Amino acid sequence: MRGFDPLAALQELLENCRVFVEGTTDGTGFFVAPGFVVSCAHVAGVEAGLPALVRWNGQDYEAVVVAASADTPDRTSTLYAFPDLAVVQLLDPPDGHPCVWLDMARPLQGGELTAVGFADTLQAAAAPRRVRLISGGRTAQAAGHLMELVDGEINPGLSGGPVLDHTSAGVCAVVKATRLEDTTMGGFGVPLDSLRLLDPEVYRTVIKRHDRFHQSDLRWRMLSDRVEQVPVGQVSETAFDRHFLGLLAALPGSHDADRSHSAAFLAVAAPGTPLPERPLLTHRDVYVELTALLPPPDGELPYELAFCADLVRELAMAPSDASDGVTALRDQVLIAAGRLRLGDAVRARLAGNGVPARRPSVIGRVRHSLRDRSLYHVMVWRFRSPHDIVPGASESSALPLREALVLLSDLLAQQIDLMADNPQRRGLIELILPREVLDEDFAGWKLWPEVGYWSLGRKCDLVVRPLERHEAPHLHKAWEERWRHLEGKRVGEALVCVCGRDRQRQAALDAMFNNDPTLAALALAGTPRQRPVAEAYMVALTSGVPMMLWRRGSVPGPPTCGSPCGIPGRDACPDAGFLTRAREFLSDTLRDDVPDRVCVLRNDAEIEAEDDGHIGEHLVLLWDDPSRRIPRTPLVPASPVEEGQPVE
Questions:
Q1: How remote is the C-alpha of 444 from its chain's centroid?
Q2: Does the bond joining 356 to the residue before it have cis omega, within 30 degrees of 0?
Q3: Which helix (H) or strand (E) holds 33?
Q4: Average pLDDT of the residues in 259-272
Q5: Which of the four pLDDT bands, split at 50, 70 and 90, describes residue 638?
Q6: Alpha carbon 244 to chain centroid, angstroms
Q7: Quick one: DSSP state of residue 490?
Q8: CA 49, CA 575: separation in Å to the nearest integer?
Q9: How far is it, in rounded angstroms, from Cα 469 to Cα 466?
């Protein structure tokens, strides 16, 4: 008796998921979730609302296109524009139909594939067909890359059909076109992650229902495990991933729709990791993209596991009617970490040890235009957590500095009002700025004209952050390390003076920072806009120093004792007036409380206006928490659009 062939059984199940689609043309589709079919847009229809007919197991079902990509003109290609995908919803779907497992990873070149669909052969208008293929290279279209499907004949009736990857045992692509009819030259497929380019809400709905379906329906899972040849009693990595994705799909929808998944990805990926090519629209997208990265160093949590632990911790603190789902995800995180012998690490992350509390804030950024550094772009975000960063608007066009700052003040006022019930509720304002802008009197900005005595620096905890470091990933490791050295320390005790003179010239300072990673809080002897403090500031920035204080517009005075400036933290400062007062006022202040304390000092300086030397007067705080990063966005060149208008 012939032995059981799990791949053949999976191919039969794949064929049972196949449907015939009558839309704009005739072609193939396949079930991806209960009542939902994926096909090509040139088969099903080019826009939402178009009717379609779906035939499965000899029965016709009325359907409607709910999302589709448009056929934008492309003179360089005769193919329908990328991604050429559509989602069709059946109005009265059959009960119990199977669904394919969607695999968003690209197959390895040379890997074996199976595509199924229909063909006008054997005197039948729509005869079912199966073709074995090989994964080839990639061919570029105007908006993306197509997968090359080689060593097999792809006829037009296969368009919209699923492509099964024999290695992952999941459907990785949709058949798009033949390279040459009636030959074995194969054709082209659209990678399934391109579904993220369709209507985001439709995509979220389909993906959630897909993952929930496979949590309860084990037909595909049982066969795919056999195809992967997992020993009895063991669980494959793919099976673990499928289980995690089902648990993520069960989490509250509000968190899935509103949070910034790009920020969630960057929060756990290695420093300098760029965002994926496709938008991140769901928890699933973040998880899958993290699994595709190079693994972290030995002894560290896999990125996808750290992401799930962060979700559990944050959702456990938020009011929700899905506590059972959060608990189930937490249990699975612990099980997976136990298999890897990383139980202590994941329990620490679940408890928040080493993961700082996330304080809501408004983040504003001013950065140079790529083509003209005399012009600047402005953008703002509302930050609630690394998983919840909401852009306030599109990044502005290129503006002269004064116009850029006026726009920044207007945008800050709008976002502050959105973050709190009223402006009197003190919040955190973080401004990411190039060095030449750091000494602007942001603390004195009057954002609320109807209340002329309110200033930004006295109503909010205002900090500045260095643009140069945020846009240089190679500087992030040292930055993160020095920030950790400040954890739990009283800043007054850690504060040292830097002025850039004598033994504090740039090369000497760099050597000092190299030898002492605990140098993490500086009192600058003057503004970083003027020499010699400017040179010292750049060394501190590139060395990762996350906290600096100075008085706006000040310059270092002559040493009062006549002795040269020494090594920070080891020698006494000859002109220690500012350092002494800063240490006094921050003596019992911990790292994360410094912005609040500085706001108090600014208010104290206004109350004691007769004291011209009050530490809070003109005080600037650079407070740069590496866990509070905005999603990386590409540099924007100077735009020909009208000045001051948002870039779409």
A1: 33
A2: no
A3: strand 26-33
A4: 75
A5: very low
A6: 19
A7: B
A8: 74
A9: 6
